[in-house]
Design brief:
Elements: H1 25-52, H2 56-72, H3 83-108, H4 114-134
Length: 138
Amino acid sequence: MAGQLAPNDGELDATGGDVGGGGMASVAADQREWGALYRAYHPLVHHQCRRFLATSVAADDATQEIFVKLIGNASQVPRGEGTAPWMHRVTANHCLNQLRNERRRRDAGALDEPSAMASDHVANATWSVVCSLVCPCT
């Protein structure tokens, strides 16, 4: 079969190695699985990040950070029907942490500036709304 490619011939893994060889087949399978997970859940994660965070740039960054964390903790990602609710919870937690960290940085900065106090009031109101969206029981 000269001139025809086997299913994995020519594919590269993340380090640039050929995945067509014996031991690298699982790497190719993992890449396909992560690609499918990303394609399936990227819109959900990004949309949720966009609802939490102030700018689309912040939402893009948060979405990327979430997927990088997921790849690093692959064994914790549920498969099947539990994936979507789990992704929703992970995304909410990540965005809430982002907002909390941003608030702490702002609080540690110039507290005596009038503009900082006004923006802190808006941030507190936003934080209350976000918390009520995530946990409507409170």
